[in-house]
């Protein structure tokens, strides 16, 4: 095959009719994963991609070596205290996966651990490299130690389809028990006595809908709960206090919580409050009372308290604020921590418990004495991290910014001292003083101000080639964070920017509501407005847009809206065939997703609205920028055929390009699993971006 001749996907017209609208999908056949023609086409696309990008091989290797050279390959995490042990993980040079370890606890301060050196009495819990063996893909979905520290539950996936096999390891003897449970989902938790493990299963639509109870040494597991409403998924956990098992059921807009005494694993879970459409709530045990974080008549959520014997009775504690979105509450024996979001940044609020005989008095005084932790940078992201102990005088937190590598602190509650425990080493002469970060505000079509986070080298010329990243769905936020691979762009004079578009959660719940359902178009026009703002204000010239998953839908939509604004587009596992997917309730997650996108199957207005913006349906004959679509054959969230169909239609319909498709034939939604493999994949994407930005 000539390097100038792309594969041509055959056209097999497939008709569908919805609400009187007949559509012909000539590439629907690509959704048949078992069809040899599908495999042959994907392999032909990979070969064409290889030919088209062969000239980038030296640059790709150069970028890979930069990423590798800036990474301390033999490294370790900061240890977290849980019971009688400090837990941490190691990475070792030349090995793809981390090694989970622990060491007996002595004192309250984390042990001093040197990368590459072993501690006395150090114990390996799980070695990902040993478990992975020669498998091209490997992932751990669950790793949970019993409260007494004697037993480990762990679940593994060797395909990337996120169906895990659960096993149990005796940490005192090193023996792996014969108990083995296949086809489970992420997560799970132990009962208080460590005799019983609770886990979840998914249905055919990849919805976690069942909770099972496994008693060690038995063969027949017990179904504890099954969720029959297809809009809801379930999960289960153990409170930090280890007093309650918490079984949660939730849709995109509604939640329901059940509680069970953790010492009675065979008991019956009791509902806190029955589900009420539009009301979300979570329950946190705080010793002699519960915290309840909820959004009933409180768009950005309110913090309430409830007695142990009547958790359905909620007394307001922290009132709702229009400018502050409460994200989560972490309760401890002597204090609580509220994680929040305000003005596009995250923050932490401490509620110290004073001495008082009545818990309500303690809580009211805690609210009066509450304070926030200050951080000096104009852009950053902070949150609780690794706080498994219920009784502690320290708060472990994670901090990063666009110029500060990921950092782990202990915050001393008694002295208000912030103690830096570790900042991820960045090798190769990295100096944060060489870089600067900014917050700009673009103006959307309707006048809304859209925050844009920017980072660049101080000596980079303006305007500069720019990567503009976006997501904008599910109230997920793309917070200002550090990236080692990104340095390969910045050091070549690029600007990197994040458009915090509506549909995300950066500016609170309303920000999310204004970018979903029949207001989804705001997500796309916000991104285009951000691109135009960067050009108009002198930041940028050639802009390469990048996004993944639902951010891949954003990429497809903005390319249809304003192809002239972008010098290139990278769409990773992109949700570009959204209408066809959301019309099919048999596909993974579709019914759950109706609360996010609308229900086009039963609502003609939603159908018409989605059809007006979904990328696959709206490709036309204009000149499109070069596009690189990256997907994985075993992805269970965004199926491989979505970008495959999209690229085929672009080739057949549009001008411009080139349009390239890269399919990882042995991975899932997150791409290749080993860290060196992942670095090579990122180096490939960055080499393509560098060429687009500088040619």
UniProtKB/TrEMBL annotation:
Keyword terms, alphabetized: Hydrolase, Protease, Serine protease
Lineage top rank: taxon: Bacteria
Residue ranges of every copy of the Peptidase S9 prolyl oligopeptidase catalytic domain listed in the record: 482-690
Gene3D superfamilies attached to this UniProt entry: alpha/beta hydrolase, Prolyl oligopeptidase, N-terminal domain
Peptidase S9A N-terminal domain ranges (all copies): 6-423
Record carries keyword Cytoplasm: no
Hydrolase in keyword set: yes
Entry's family note: Belongs to the peptidase S9A family.
Name of the molecule in the record: S9 family peptidase
